[in-house]
Amino acid sequence: MAQAVPDSVLAETAWNKRRLYALSNRIGPSGTDYDLTLPVTAPAHSEEIGEIPELGEDDVGQAVEQTREAAKEWREFSVDERAEVLTKFANLAADNRKELLDLLQLETGKSRAHALEETIDVPQNADYYADKGPGILATESRASGIPFATSAEVQYDSKGVVGIISPWNYPLVLSFADAIPALLAGNGVVLKPDEKTPFTALRLAELLEEAGLPEGVVTIVTGDGPTVGSAIIERVDYLTFTGSSETGKIVAEQAGRNLIDCSLELSGKNPMIILDDADVEEAARGAVQGSFTNAGQLCLANERIYVHEDIYDDFLDEFVSQTESLELGADFEFDADVGSLIDSDQLERVQSHVADAVESGATVHTGGNARSEIGPYFYEPTILTDVPATSLPACEETFGPLAVVESVSSAEEAIEKANDSDHGLNASVWSGDRERAKEIAREIESGTVCINDPFLVGWASYDAPMGGVKESGIGRRHGPEGLKRYTEPKTIATSAVGPLGPIPGVPDELFAKGFSAVSNIQRRLNQLRR
Ligand code: NAD
To answer: Whose CA is nearest to atom 9 of ligand 1?
Structure first.
């Protein structure tokens, strides 16, 4: 049973204990009542808002089997019918934006402005796939072995059950950017949100059913990451994981042992390159957005900023000044710019990175302090320079409101430093000459490079793939690539002349000559067509 929790924060929102309790009861396979033993806390307000069950391996097994059964009905829907459900879902998600914003802010502690990005993204993504998906999944005619005599087509079958394991930093986006295409392709989905942020995913699953998704096609499971995560990977037909590179490697090993394909969206240590001809005010605005959106708890955040020496001082002054004007807070209005960190682990991580850099000689230009009077895990947006290459923020992802700025003497030096990393998720290049910036973008080892924008221009290009290189991951979400990963392409090849091979009554030698001649003519024609 849910314990009595204070209503003080909930009372400011569209949510109450009864509604959150009803969401908790949707967790796991249907027909089973679980004890709610894991507390969920509103980090900005240090208040318990609800509880969820801690499922075990058998519960997950049952959840996958129920989802597999429910998905059979869903697969019978045509792709156009599935797209209609997604369109209705997009409208419902947009219509219910206010309560989703409240819920997101409650469970993550992010500012309302940053929560807004998530609630805009989900309907946009669903609309994109509802619009383009049927065309991407349509059966295609392909070149066959012998023109006129044979033909080949490829159809895109669903995989079965897709497992999605997602993190706490963008609980709506990072669950549903991947669930939406998986559903359009006709799969069932077993989704494990992070145990810190389960409620927004549960509410969206409810909206999907309201939009016409048959019950049980999306099942949400919660509990200990390694236990529940591993039980999912053991049973599903495809796995999408978003989280740290460290966990991603464990997940990939298990997926490999089970011979299932997976996409891994992992950590970043993203560079921002500001060339000598960049607009300083614009670049500073981009740096504020790129470093402090979601209090820096963003895989695409710019943690390393390389600025051409000619504009370094002007940029740093402007960046510091814009950063100092940011308001911290997480009220349920659009007043605050930057919200809370998610928990004490994140706060300690940011503090240890700043302390290590400062002890090694770094200069703090602004920030550097926790702000416990606002909430237990608030930390000031912080800008450092003179950060030694061996210190923590230079070597590891901080995943917090910390930007490291460094002067470079040329574009070549900036490219070299940007590429000197184990990660390659996102990068940005800033210049008054967009063609010059594109030339540099081509040299950067990264899944996405944004020009004159820190990350949104790439993310919001729904038709273009997103993902990482090196330790930032495998596979892509968004675009045709993000949909086709959830399918098994099946080739259906047809002969109009019976079995291909020796023709009865034709001597073998004559057949061999004729076959070779036809093959040679065909190859020549193909070469002439190139
Ligand atoms: P994490 O790897 O600790 O956890 C991610 C998810 O995996 C959680 O749901 C967790 O419960 C689960 N999990 C934990 N251990 C598991 C195991 N052994 N097997 C299966 N699942 C397991 O990551 P986090 O700290 O929650 O998230 C922050 C990290 O995620 C950062 O490194 C960030 O850069 C990265 N991230 C990447 C993207 C992207 O799109 N590339 C997006 C957001 C966050």
So the answer is: 194
Is 262 one of the annotated active-site residues of the chain?
no
How far apart CA 273 and CA 372 sit, in angstroms, is 33
Q: Pick the residue whose CA is nearest to atom 43 on ligand 1.
A: 299
pLDDT higher than 50, residue 3: no
Catalytic option among 118, 299, 397, 450: 299
CATH number of 270-467: 3.40.309.10
Distance CA 379, CA 109 (A): 12
pLDDT at 7: 58
Model confidence pLDDT, tens digit, residues 207-221: 999 999 999 999 999
| Cα distances (angstroms) measured from residue 96 to each of 49, 123, 130, 336, 468 | 20, 11, 19, 22, 32
Query: Of 423, 352, 357, 408, which Cα lies nearest the Cα of 385?
Result: 357
Residue 39 has pLDDT above 80, yes or no: yes
- Compute the average pLDDT of residues 369-394: 97
Residue 4 has pLDDT above 90, yes or no: no
Residue 244 Cα to ligand 1 middle (Å): 4
Alpha-carbon span 467 to 457, nearest angstrom: 14
| Residue 1 scores a pLDDT above 50 | no
Q: How far apart are CA 32 and CA 186, in angstroms?
A: 26
CATH of region 57-266+481-487? 3.40.605.10
Residues of the chain with CATH 3.40.309.10: 270-467
Annotated catalytic residue 395: no
Whole-model pTM? 0.96
- Is the pLDDT at 204 greater than 80? The verdict is yes
CATH 3.40.605.10 occupies which residues in the chain?
57-266+481-487
**Which residues have any ligand 1 atom within 6 Å of their CB?**
165-169, 174, 192, 194, 225-226, 229-230, 242-244, 247, 250-251, 265-268, 299, 397, 399, 425, 468, 473
pLDDT at 308 exceeding the cut of 60: yes
Pocket test for ligand 1, best of 57, 125, 165, 235 (most atoms within 8 A of CB): 165
Q: State the closest ligand 1 atom to the C-alpha of 225, by its place in the atom list counted from 1.
A: 11
Q: What tokens appear for 317 in the block? A: 């002054």
